[in-house]
Specification:
Blueprint lengths: L3 H14 L5 E6 L12 H8 L8 E3 L2 E7 L2 E6 L4 E7 L8 E7 L5 E7 L5 E6 L26 H11 L3 H5 L10 H11 L12 H20 L41 E5 L2 E5 L12
Antiparallel strand pairs: 1-6, 2-3, 3-4, 4-8, 5-7, 6-7, 9-10
Helix pairs in contact: 1-6, 5-6
Length: about 290
């Protein structure tokens, strides 16, 4: 699933190509793509028709564009979703689910393409008074570590209260958003923390070090356009990122650790995999 860097790359593309444009029409080609819009296809299209799209925003792995004072268009990419800017004359993609055309003469449109249909678009009321049009449905999601308003002290306190293990905490979007399996493994490798380290044992300086490495790895990934292991994770122009070439832990099973040369190990974890260096990231006693 795309994580913060991949979603931020898409947000920046929407900000450049979509913000400020007026929707001429919205066509739903697959009902599942708007299943979270419970009012149905006709209501979805009618609400967007004639709406001027506001500034593109992101909270964790979610995107949204304000369409009115009290309504925002929310997008989630799921496993394979793509928001593409395409010429209006371009052939339809095999998995095109929603198409937004615009009232201007730029000759491009916004397409939501999703092979597995786990992602989707929907319209939601906004938090009253929120200047960025934050949808109510996203209000429970924590700020991400690249957000200027991310509260590091509050995050550390939440970790200590949670009494769980560190990777589980990093994937808890109510504690910190935007971090998924890939960047959790990468940040933990940089911090030399095992994924089963209890959060209650983290000192304030150790939490600060971890947050610094999360920010660094995400900033590095953004500079490379994100991580794309296949053609599904792309920007609005259909281009893949190449940060997968710079990964230190994730996906490098049996390859030498770039610090100490010890082979990277992979272990099953919560229906996923965790990659770590057994020397740099020793198993904590509580998990031995």
């Amino acid at each position: 699933m795309p994580e913060l860097p991949e979603v931020e790359v898409v947000r920046r593309g929407l900000a450049r190509w979509v913000t400020g444009r007026t929707v001429a029409d919205a066509t739903v080609l697959h009902a599942r793509a708007i299943r979270r819009h419970t009012a149905g296809e006709a209501d979805f299209a009618n609400a967007l028709r004639g709406a001027a799209l506001g500034e593109a925003h992101r909270r964790g792995k979610y995107l949204w564009l304000p369409v009115a004072d009290d309504l925002s268009l929310v997008g989630h990419l799921g496993m394979s979703g793509q928001l593409l800017i395409q010429p209006t004359t371009a052939p339809a993609e095999p998995h095109l689910r929603v198409r937004l055309t615009f009232a201007d003469s730029e000759g491009t449109e916004l397409r939501f393409v999703d092979q597995r249909t786990f992602g989707g678009l929907s319209l939601h009321p906004t938090v009253p008074g929120a200047p960025d049009g934050l949808p109510l449905t996203l209000a429970h999601i924590a700020r991400d570590p690249l957000d200027p308003e991310f509260d590091e002290d509050a995050f550390h306190a939440a970790l200590r209260r949670k009494r769980t293990t560190i990777k589980r905490a990093l994937l808890d979007q109510s504690l910190i958003s935007g971090v998924g399996n890939i960047y959790a493994d990468e940040a933990l490798w940089r911090t030399r923390l095992h994924y089963e380290r209890p959060t209650a044992a983290l000192t304030r300086p150790r939490t600060a070090e971890l947050v610094t490495h999360i920010r660094e790895v995400m900033t590095d990934a953004l500079a490379a356009g994100g991580t794309s292991f296949d053609s599904l994770y792309v920007n609005v122009n259909g281009q893949s990122g190449y940060f997968d070439r710079s990964l230190d832990a994730y996906g490098r099973e049996d390859q030498p650790c770039r610090r100490c040369g010890t082979p990277i190990r992979r272990r099953p974890w919560m229906n996923r995999s965790s990659y770590f260096c057994p020397r740099c990231q020793p198993v904590p006693r509580s998990a031995s």
